[in-house]
Write a structure and sequence with these properties.
Layout lengths: L1 H23 L11 E2 L10 E3 L57 E5 L4 E4 L8 E5 L5 E8 L2 E5 L5 E5 L3 E2 L3 E4 L4 E4 L8 E5 L4 E7 L5 E6 L2 E6 L3 E2 L7 E2 L1
Antiparallel strand pairs: 1-2, 2-5, 3-6, 3-9, 4-5, 6-7, 7-8, 10-13, 10-16, 11-12, 13-14, 13-17, 14-15
């Protein structure tokens, strides 16, 4: 009889293992697809791929009990007072108008060096990529510096950190608003030389200090644009020349 019981148990074991495996199989997770934003109104492609961040923080449910305090001991004899060392002279605060790494003005305008620039949520590769810029020469504004990283703001107001190697000091502009007119000289009465649409990127050749006009170039076409027509300079800033 005991042999029959053992045989019955051995036949039931594989079924039990199979049931356990079925119950412990991991359910498939739904894939997450990165969204893509297209700027359809711009004459030049200005795509930035969005990488949604997914980070989870886990906090422990239990904390270790504190050990019991040892019984009080006899107080040691007080040591004679020691004269305090003279305080070190305070360091002057850093100049808020200059970068802490380069000493260059903050804020200032620079441009993207390549067609593949990662914008991260923090100053380091351990921070997730939030955007990928596919627009070489796009002007951005540097707001902060940390080691080899720069906090920048793009024409749409999006901020993030990029590596200094992906930036260049070349001065470019990004046309904002509606269609703008490039003129032969710095005057509303000057002859028009071209019309540029919103989203066009070009080179800034010269901006006289405190002038409302800048000499610019798009491809082979040169002319003058009002500062208010584009993104890429500070108010009254002198560029080139």
């Amino acid at each position: 009889m005991w042999k029959a019981v053992l045989l019955s148990l051995s036949l039931m074991a594989p079924a039990a293992r199979a049931a356990t495996q079925d119950n412990t199989q991991t359910k498939p997770t739904k894939p997450v697809h990165a969204a893509t934003i297209h700027s359809e109104n711009h004459p030049v492609s200005h795509d930035r791929k969005l990488h949604p961040a997914s980070s989870t923080k886990h906090q422990g449910a239990h904390t270790a009990a504190k050990p019991a305090a040892p019984p009080p001991t006899a107080a040691a004899p007080a040591s004679p007072p020691v004269a305090a060392a003279p305080a070190a002279p305070a360091k002057p605060p850093p100049d808020a108008a200059k970068g802490t790494v380069t000493g260059l003005p903050i804020p200032r305008f620079v441009s993207l060096r390549t067609d593949d620039v990662n914008l991260r949520s923090g100053p380091g590769t351990r921070y997730p990529i939030e955007w990928v810029y596919k627009r070489r020469d796009l002007p951005v504004e540097v707001e902060r510096e940390f080691e080899v990283w720069r906090l920048v703001r793009d024409p749409d107001g999006v901020k993030g950190w990029v590596h200094q190697a992906t930036l260049t000091g070349r001065r470019n502009f990004f046309v904002t608003g509606g269609e703008q007119v490039m003129r032969e000289s710095a005057s509303d009465a000057a002859v028009p030389v071209a019309k540029v649409e919103a989203g066009v990127v070009g080179r800034i050749r010269e901006c006289p200090a405190s002038s409302d006009w800048c000499e610019v170039q798009v491809g082979d076409v040169r002319g003058w644009l009002k500062r208010e027509a584009f993104w890429g300079t500070l108010p009254g800033e002198a560029v080139g020349g």
